[in-house]
C-alpha cells in the first residue's frame, strides 16, 4: 500500500518519466534549438506571439528566425522540467524537516536537489553550446538518474524488503544496473550525433553489408562540436557508423545480462513479479527500433525502473527510512 506522505514523490516520479520522454521527442523533432537563449525564448518567458515581439526577436537574434512549432516544444519541455525541479525542492525541504523530527535520511532528496540544479545547467549549455554531443548525452543521463533516484526513494518508503538475499545476487544486480546506464549513455551518444539511421538493417548493418567501414577513433571524441571532429572538420560517415555498431554490441551484452538476472529473480520467492517485469521491459526495448527515439528512451527508462525496484527489494531494511 502506498503511503500518503509519499504522494509528492510519486507525482514527481511520473513527471520525471514524462520529462525524459519529452526530451527525446524534442531531439527527434529537431527542436532542441527551438529557442536560441535560456531560460526564456527570444528574450521572453513564452514563445513570442505578437508582431512587435517577433520584430524584437528578429533584431536580437537576426540569424535565428522564429519557428513557433519548434520553440513551443522546447518551452513545454522547460516548463515540465522546471515544475519537476519545484517538486524536488519541496521533497528535499520536507526531508530535512522530517530528518530533524523522525530520523528520516535527507541524503537521497539532497542528491536529487543537487542533480536537478546540475540538470538545469546542462539544459542551458545544451542551447548555448549548440547541441554539443557530450552535453546532450550528459543531459539524458542526468534525466535518467533523476528518474532512478526518485523511484529508489519511492520504493524505500513503500515496498517490502527481501531478507537474507545472497550478496552475490545484490552485486550482480548492481553490475547489471551499471551496464544498463552505460548502454543508455551509448544510446544518448547515438541520438546526439544523429547516428541512429547509419545502420538500417538487422542483423547486418545495411542489406548485404555485415562489416561496414567504421572509424572508431573519431567516433568517441568527446571534445568536439555537433557533426565535427576534434579538428573542426566534418565528421565522416564511418565514425557515425562506428557509434551505431558499438551501441548494437552493447545492446547484445545488456540483453544477455538483464535476461540472466531476470530469470534468476523469477526463481526466488517474492521476486518473481520483478523478474517478469524486467523480462517484459527488456522485450519491449529490444522490439523498439532505434530511430524511434521517444519509445526507445521510454523503454530504457522502464528497464532502468525494473532494476531499481529489484535492487530496492534485494536490500535490507535501512535504519533511516
Provide a concise account of the structure shown.
The chain has 321 residues and is mainly alpha-helical. 66% of the residues lie in helices and 0% in strands. It has helices spanning 7-28, 51-60, 68-102, 107-128, 133-158, 167-192, 216-219, 237-266, 272-287, 293-314.
In total, the number of strands is: 0
* Helix percentage: 55-70%
Overall, the morphology is flat
Let me know the largest β-sheet.
Answer: none
Rg, rounded, reads 21 Å
Q: Any low-confidence stretches, pLDDT <50, length ≥5? A: none
* Structural class by secondary-structure content: mainly alpha
Structure description:
With 321 residues, the chain is an all-alpha fold. 66% of the residues lie in helices and 0% in strands. The chain has ten helices and no strands. The protein has helices at 7-28, 51-60, 68-102, 107-128, 133-158, 167-192, 216-219, 237-266, 272-287, 293-314. The longest helix has 35 residues, at 68-102. It is flat, with a radius of gyration of 21 Å. The protein starts with 6 loop residues before the first helix and ends in a 7-residue tail after the last helix. The relative contact order is 0.12. The model has no long low-confidence stretch (mean pLDDT 91).
Amino acid at each position: 500500500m502506498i503511503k500518503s506522505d509519499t504522494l509528492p514523490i510519486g507525482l514527481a516520479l511520473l513527471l520525471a518519466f514524462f520529462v525524459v520522454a519529452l526530451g527525446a521527442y524534442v531531439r527527434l523533432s529537431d527542436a532542441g534549438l527551438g529557442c536560441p537563449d535560456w531560460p526564456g525564448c527570444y528574450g521572453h518567458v513564452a514563445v513570442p506571439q505578437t508582431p512587435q515581439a517577433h520584430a524584437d526577436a528578429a533584431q536580437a537574434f537576426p540569424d535565428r528566425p522564429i519557428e513557433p512549432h519548434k520553440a513551443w516544444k522546447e518551452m513545454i519541455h522547460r516548463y515540465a522540467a522546471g515544475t519537476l525541479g519545484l517538486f524536488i525542492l519541496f521533497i528535499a525541504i520536507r526531508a530535512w524537516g522530517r530528518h530533524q523530527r523522525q530520523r528520516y535520511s535527507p541524503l537521497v532528496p539532497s542528491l536529487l536537489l543537487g542533480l536537478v540544479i546540475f540538470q538545469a545547467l546542462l539544459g542551458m549549455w545544451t542551447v548555448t553550446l549548440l547541441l554539443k554531443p557530450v552535453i546532450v548525452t550528459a543531459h539524458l543521463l542526468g534525466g535518467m538518474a533523476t528518474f532512478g533516484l526518485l523511484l529508489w526513494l519511492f520504493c524505500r518508503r513503500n515496498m517490502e524488503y527481501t531478507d537474507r538475499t545472497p550478496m552475490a545476487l545484490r552485486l550482480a544486480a548492481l553490475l547489471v544496473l551499471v551496464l544498463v546506464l552505460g548502454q543508455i549513455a551509448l544510446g544518448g551518444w547515438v541520438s546526439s550525433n544523429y547516428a541512429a539511421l547509419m545502420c538500417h538493417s538487422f542483423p547486418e548493418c545495411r542489406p548485404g553489408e555485415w562489416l561496414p567501414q567504421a572509424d572508431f577513433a573519431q567516433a568517441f571524441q568527446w571534445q568536439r562540436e555537433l557533426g565535427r571532429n576534434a579538428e573542426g572538420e566534418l565528421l565522416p560517415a564511418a565514425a557515425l557508423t562506428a557509434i551505431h555498431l558499438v551501441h548494437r554490441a552493447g545492446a547484445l551484452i545488456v540483453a544477455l545480462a538483464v535476461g540472466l538476472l531476470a530469470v534468476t529473480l523469477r526463481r526466488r520467492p517474492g521476486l518473481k513479479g520483478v523478474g517478469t517485469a524486467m523480462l517484459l521491459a527488456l522485450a519491449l526495448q529490444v522490439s523498439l527500433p532505434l530511430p524511434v527515439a521517444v519509445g526507445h528512451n521510454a523503454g530504457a527508462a522502464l528497464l532502468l525502473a525494473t532494476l531499481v525496484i529489484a535492487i530496492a527489494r534485494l536490500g535490507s531494511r535501512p535504519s533511516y527510512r
